[in-house]
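Memo to structure team: turn this sequence into structure tokens by end of day. - J.P.
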Amino acid sequence: MRAQFVLSEIGVGLRRNLTMTFAVIVSVALSLALAGGSLLAREQVSTMKGYWYDKVQVSIYLCNKNDASNDPTCAKGAVTEQQKSEIKTDLDKLDVVEKVYHESADEAYKHYKEQFKDSPLADSLTPDQMQESYRVKLKDPTKYQVLQTAFSGRQGVQEVQDQRSLLENLFNLLNGMNIAALCVMALMLVVALLLIVNTVRVSAFSRRRETGIMRLVGASSFYIQMPFILEAAIAGLIGAGFACVLLVGGKYFLINNWLQEKIVLINFIGWDAVIRVLPFIVAVGVLMPAVAAFFTLRKYLKV
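Reply from structure team:
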């Protein structure tokens, strides 16, 4: 009998405040979708870092004859065969080095033509303008400073470049976007909480006579508050359900059926990452409105 009464009160409350309940559901759904998206974006950035940092190399660019007049580091002329041999020998001696690749000027020119074939500068370059280089694969990519210290400023070496630095701007951009999404999520959560509080207040005010009668016949505070708390929890649960649908749909349509086909070089997160986030979204969707309603009722449900 008591359960039936509580359920009937929940139905009455939801019908009376249908518009505000709908607003709560939408705001909760959007804020939780942003929360889940931010968590997945953070994991995506971590996945990309692990994938790309493991593949990046340190490039030791050698001086050519054109650099002698243009670059102070190559003022003593192009690299000699003896200098190249010494550099290769010293690289092989380092414990942090996993493998060394040599790229000749002709190979560099060929790779440039393949990568930038549509560039107007491609036709103006000649092989002798390209630089020889040693591409060094490190056992630990974070040990770049070892090579930087050992070979920067050395005769025959024009520049030591860590490819990780080329990726930092991309990852900084992605992290910035993630922070922006978190800020929007926080704003949406505040809006959702304000809507929940206002909805509970209106619902409690509209049923103040019923709650007064229940108090007079000896009903406990928890029993009186239960319908209001469950109303908020149900609205939050529906909003969390929509948020889960948005996340699953984003993964299926945006990532699996579009981005993976357009950007084949990125290792995107899998379904396991999405599945790990969904229970968190549902839990927050239920608990946040319920807790907000509980504390609101302590203040406004006094009969």
